[in-house]
Structures are given as structure tokens and as C-alpha cells.
Specification:
Helix content: under 10%
Distance between the termini: 41 Å
Shape: globular
Radius of gyration: 13 Å
Strand content: over 45%
Number of strands: 11
Number of helices: 0
Order of helices and strands: EEEEEEEEEEE
Length: about 130
């Protein structure tokens, strides 16, 4: 059973940066499409913001983070990262990573398409 653990969240000022990590155990993360999601305070929906797809490595971003966030893999560390730059107060949320096993979801950022989830890490952006 694949298990995912997020880390790297914290509090930053607007314009700051954070790097989130999603580290897997119980499986090889390269074999999964991995997505990053966030759930803002008071919202009951997890918003898909980025994914990196197996097996071709293609990447998708939501428009809200395009140009500011970068998703990447480190196969040796069985980890997927989310580099977040130029953070805004509206980026405040709990951030989750999730993995989609084969057959893959074709690059979807829909939360219902993903099979395994971490517990999340909080990000707060305020001055």
C-alpha cells in the first residue's frame, strides 16, 4: 500500500517562497501520477493545482498557480516537490499530495481521480 507524507509547510509573508515535499513509502512514486491539492480555510473542496504524470512526465498547472509554482520529481528520493514562489494570502490552505495508480487519469486535476492521499501540510501566507 502506497503511503504519502507531506512536509515543508509553514508561515511566510506575501512574496515569499516555500518548498513542499511529498515522500512515498510502500511503492515507487515514479509509477504514479502525482498531484498537489489544497483546501482553503472554510472550504470543503480540495482544489487540484499541479500534477506530474506517469509515464511521460508531462505537467499540468491550474491557472491560479501557473508561473509561480513548479512541480518536480526526485526519483532517487521517491519524492515529488512543489516549489511555491511569489506566495499570496489567497494561497493559504492545507496542501495535500495524492497519487493515481494505473490506468492513469490522463492528467486530470480532479481530486476524485486520485487513489492515495497524504495527511496534508499547512501553508499560511500573511503579513
Amino acid at each position: 500500500q502506497l503511503q504519502l507524507v507531506e512536509s515543508g509547510g509553514g508561515s511566510v509573508q506575501p512574496g515569499g517562497s516555500l518548498r513542499l515535499s511529498c515522500t512515498a513509502s510502500g511503492g515507487i512514486l515514479d509509477h504514479y501520477t502525482v498531484g498537489w491539492f489544497r483546501q482553503a480555510p472554510g472550504k470543503n473542496r480540495r482544489e487540484g493545482i499541479a500534477n506530474i504524470n506517469a509515464p511521460d512526465g508531462s505537467i499540468n498547472y491550474d491557472a491560479s498557480v501557473q508561473g509561480r509554482f513548479t512541480i518536480s520529481r526526485d526519483s532517487a528520493k521517491n519524492t515529488v516537490y512543489l516549489q511555491m514562489n511569489s506566495l499570496k494570502p489567497e494561497d493559504t490552505a492545507d496542501y495535500y499530495c495524492a497519487a493515481d495508480r494505473p490506468p492513469y487519469n490522463g492528467g486530470s486535476l480532479g481530486a476524485h481521480e486520485y487513489d492515495y492521499w497524504g495527511r496534508g501540510t499547512p501553508v499560511s501566507v500573511s503579513s
